[in-house]
Structures are given as structure tokens and as C-alpha cells.
Amino acid sequence: MPDTYVGAIDQGTTGTRFMVFDHAGQVVANAYEKHEQIYPEPGWVEHDPTEIWENTTTVVTRGLADAGLEASQLEAIGITNQRETTVVWDADTGRPVHNALVWQDRRTTDRVEELQAADKVEWIRGKTGLEADAYFSATKTEWILDNAEPLKLQSSRGGGLRERAEAGELLMGTIDSWLIYNLTGNHITDVTNASRTMLYDIRELEWDDELLAEFDVPESMVPEVRPSSDEEYYGYTDPDGFLGAEVPVAGALGDQQAAMFGQTCFDEGDAKNTYGTGSFYLMNTGTEAVESDHGLLTTIGFQLSDEPVRYALEGSIFVTGAAIEWLEDVDLINNAAQTAELARSVDSTDGVYMVPAFTGLGAPHWDGRARGTIVGMTRGTRKEHIVRATLEAIAYQTRDVAEAMEADSGVETTSLRVDGGAVKNDFLCQLQSDIIQTEIARPEVDETTALGSAYAAGLAVGYWDSVDDLRQNWQVDREFTPEMDAADADAMYDRWGDAVERSRNWATED
């Protein structure tokens, strides 16, 4: 009997990764492929769902081949995905009718403002735990049905997209649903992804008829909702398909919930922050959906088979790693690794603050019309100051969320588990510890998003017996403790608030 493993498809904002893990949670295969970022208009962001699926088959095949593994050695596949990004496809052909609208896309801001003007924000929050924002899937689906020019590659049947949706001819879903559909032929999502659509009641655990009506989304379009780790499985890969084997697809989690799961934040009060394109700070609140009074989201953290849902508080920061990408785009740096060297070369930012509100501000501000801002520059400002200010902005935004998290939960953060590409930067980790004045714990396996979805799938098929097995796998790579005086950190953070105010409500014209 050959050694067996669990595979994880990690479909992110900028690319798709396939990883294979062993019993100890160690990586035995890893392959990655970028996909195109499509910007039809300012503030609009799209992906090609077909390209994403093709890249998925590429990385799975390449990852297995590079590691010398057979698909039959996979006991299960888990999926994790960029959340909120929305695909609508033809139920007959399986072809998308339009590009996916990405979570960063702001084209439905006007619709959100209509909801605000109609005093529907609290009504939506009460059902979904979410802010009324263009970030979520509801307004994206509505926009596609009402406004999209259908792609020519769909079937040639007549009728507009809305009419076709009402006739039961179209399906919608987040990226996990799109991948599960293509892998198994089944239209399924998990509770964490459903909770990000602004169409799902997180307490009743069902698609909400009133919200479906508000956004004019026919119920026939939405997927079946299952636990994140599902002993009944979502389905099997086609033995005659690209894998050439029948492998159970048995787990799915939105990327931030997957990172929380991979960081083994299984107990109430456990918290993690993932530094990717954006940053997402989640705290496990147990079986209680804690309402936020400080601009955070109440969301579903995970659900194991035959167990109650575990909830989380979340602070969603839209731009962190993407701010470092912007530095590269405008030729201030050659690569992300250079940021630490440049930031260390100056003692401070010389009073410069950078607010990376390129796609608006998320938690706790929720201003879709905020825009990126650099303030405090003088004739002596150099690129080193701007680079350092960008790294500081990542730390300040995290403190914004950390303070809101403590105020809502009543739990003081003593240690924060971190993951994502940016935490390879020791300078940023130390800066983060200084700014929020708490311990930062970086794990050995920092691809915790993929690891979390592998854990969910592996638990479902019995590859791991219990979450206690997973806790034993978690190992610290390095801990960072505050070196800055608390009063100095507070003074720097106070001025950050002034910079944020200058970025707000900027994009007032469409």
C-alpha cells in the first residue's frame, strides 16, 4: 500500500496553488500558477473563471508529477478560495456567462448606498453578520444578471441573463462552488463561503428568502450548503477526467477561515491574522455569533460534520500585500523582499503616512469611497520613507482591527498567530508586534490556508482522527515580542487616524 496524503487546492486572488500534505502537516508537493487580473474600468476587478479552472488542473497535475505522486495516493482533496468573488454559469454547458466579479470590485457601490439610504443596513447585518458593502456576493450577482454582456462562448439560447436565471438555466457561486462543480459535477458550497454572500442567514443556517428577493437572485441559482468538513463528501473527481482517479472532495473553507483552521484556532478566543493581498484578522467566538459594535463582521468560522457551527469575529482589511505590489508597480522597489532593507535604512518615515485605500477601506471604517493617500511628504521625502510608511500602514490597519476585536469580544489579545506571504518579512513581524504591543507567533508552515482546507478534508475521510491530532502538528517558527516603548507606538498610531480621515469619501464622482 503506497503512502497516502491529502491534497489542497488554494484558489487565491492572484493565482492558484496545489499542495499535498502528510500526516504531520508537512508539505510534500507544491505547484502555483498566476492568472490575469482584469480591470475594465477604475474600481472594477474581474477574473476569467475558465482560466482559473484550467490553471487548477495544471497545478494539480504538475504538483503531483513533480513530487512523484499518483492521484490514487490522495485520500481526499480540500478546497480553499478567495471569498466573495462571484461566478455565474450556464447550468447546461457549465460555461461562465461573464467574468467573475472579484471581492475587490467596487462597481456596485451605488447599489450599497441605496441600501444605506433605505435604512436596510441593520436588517442585513442582523441576518448575515455583514456590513452592507460591495465586497460581498449579493450585489455582484445582481449586477451580472442586470448589466452583464454575456460572453459569446455560452449557449446560443435567447433571452437575457435575468430571464434565464428565473427559468432555472443559470447557477451562481463563490469560487469554491465553481471548483467543486468542475471537479464533481455537484453544485455545493460550505457554510463559511455561504456566510460571505450577504444572502445567507448565519443563525438559521439557510439561504434567506427576503435577501434573495431584495437582490433578485432566484433560489434555483444558489448552491446546496454543507459543513466545511463533510463526512458525506461533496462528491468525487471523475476517474476518466484529468486526474484519472476517483478522489473524494470532502472539505472547503473560505481562505480566511481555512487559515484560522490551519492555525488550529479551534477554541473560543483563539485569533489569527493572514497577510495576503488583503489582511484578515479572525477570532473564534465559539458557538455564539457575537454582534459587533465596532465595525467588525460576524461570520461563520467553520463547521465539522454533525457538530454545531463555530462563529468568528472578523476584521477585513482590503489592501496590505497589494500595497507592496503597488510599490513594485510604480518602480519604488524591485521585489517584495527589498522592502525590509529599504525600511531599515531610515530611522522613521519622517512624518509620512500612507493609507492604501486603493479599493476603499474595510473594517472598522467601511468607506467604499476612500482612496489611497500619502500625506506628510516634504522635499526631503525619499522612496525609503514611502516604503517604510507602507509597511507601517499594514501594522496600523491591523491595530485598528485588534482594538475593535478586543472591544467587541472583551478578550485581550496576548498572542496573535500570523500567516501569509508577508510574514516572511521579519521587519514587518517585529513592527507589527511593536505597533499592537503584543506577541506575534509565526508557524513553521506558513501556507496555513491550504493546510486548513487539507485538514478539513482529511478529518472528513478519517486521515486525521480529531482536531487534537492537528494541534500537535502546529509548530512555532519564530516569536516576536514588542521592542518599542508603548507610548511611542501610541503616538505613531494616533497620527495614523488623522491620515485615514484624509483618505475618506474621496471618490465622490463615478
Feature tags:
16 helices; alpha+beta; seven-stranded mixed beta sheet; 22% strand; 510 residues
Q: Could you name the ranges where pLDDT drops below 50 across 5 or more consecutive residues?
A: 152-158
- Briefly note the structural class of the backbone: alpha+beta
Helical proportion, percent range? 25-40%
Overall geometric form: globular
Topology, number of strands:
23
Radius of gyration: 22 Å
From the N-terminal CA to the C-terminal CA, the straight-line distance is 62 Å
How confident is the prediction overall: mean pLDDT? Answer: 92
Number of helices: 16
Largest sheet: 7 strands, mixed
Enzyme class: transferase
Binding site for ADP: 13, 17, 277, 321, 421, 425
Function: Key enzyme in the regulation of glycerol uptake and metabolism. Catalyzes the phosphorylation of glycerol to yield sn-glycerol 3-phosphate.
Binding site for ATP: 13-14, 277, 321, 421
Give an overview of the whole structure.
The chain has 510 residues and is α+β, with helices and mostly antiparallel strands. It starts with a strand and ends in a 7-residue tail after the last helix. The chain is 34% helix and 22% strand. The protein has helices at residues 49-66, 109-117, 121-128, 137-147, 161-166, 175-184, 191-194, 209-214, 255-262, 321-329, 338-344, 383-409, 426-436, 448-461, 467-473, 486-503; strands at residues 5-11, 15-21, 27-34, 46-47, 74-81, 86-90, 100-101, 170-174, 188-190, 200-201, 206-207, 224-226, 235-236, 248-254, 271-275, 279-286, 297-302, 310-317, 353-355, 373-375, 415-419, 439-443, 476-480. Helix 9 (255-262) packs across helix 14, helix 10 packs antiparallel against helix 12 and helix 12 packs across helix 13 (426-436). The strands form 7 sheets. The protein has a 7-stranded mixed sheet with strand order 17-18-16-15-21-22-23. The protein has a 6-stranded mixed sheet with strand order 3-2-1-5-14-13, sandwiched between helices.
